[in-house]
Specification:
The chain contains four helices and six strands, in the order H-H-E-E-H-E-E-E-E-H. It is α+β, with helices and mostly antiparallel strands. It has a six-stranded antiparallel sheet. Strand 4 and strand 5 form a beta hairpin.
């Protein structure tokens, strides 16, 4: 009877494993992104969250300088809340096509003790992010919701409305 239960357990375990293991799979990519951000947070001298305008807000005005609507330097408790908003999860960025103009209105600026800076730019309209204005991609699963809640907890507006630009 024990041998039969062991065989059933082994068959059940094999049936839930993927047909092939992808070393650079979506969970690995999500983990790498989280690790990069956590490493910067571990070495941070300051972490600042900024809600700002975007050049896309007034595309016809070549002289438009995006305003800063809110800027908060995070305390230790808020940095911990930011960490919770960045869970290890699947990053499907390679499997999904970007469909909108990246119109970020939020940035998390991590200034490290050595002077290096890492900026996480967030667009909640289309659920995309970029690191240092590069590597634009869809947010890992769940990050749009968790980061949106985090941004809102700071009194900011993840989904707008943002003040209209003045001319």
């Amino acid at each position: 009877m024990v041998a039969r239960l062991t065989l059933i357990a082994a068959v059940c375990a094999l049936s839930v494993l993927p047909a092939h293991a992808e070393p650079e799979g979506s969970l690995a990519r999500g983990s790498q992104l989280q690790h990069r951000l956590f490493k910067a947070l571990d070495n941070a001298s300051t972490v600042t969250v900024i809600e700002h305008g975007n050049l896309v807000d007034v595309p016809s005005d070549k002289n438009y300088v995006p305003p800063i609507y809110a800027k908060i330097v995070l305390n230790a408790k808020q940095i911990q809340a930011l960490r919770y908003a960045l869970p290890v999860t699947k990053d499907r960025s390679r499997d999904m096509r970007l469909d909108c103009i990246f119109d970020d209105h939020h940035a998390v600026v991590i200034r490290e003790k050595n002077g290096d800076e890492l900026t996480l730019n967030l667009c909640f309209v289309c659920g995309e992010l970029s690191l240092d204005h590069d590597d634009e991609r869809v947010m890992p699963d769940g990050w749009a919701d968790s980061l949106s809640h985090f941004i809102a907890s700071l009194g900011m507006h993840p989904d707008g409305p943002w003040p209209l630009p003045h001319h």
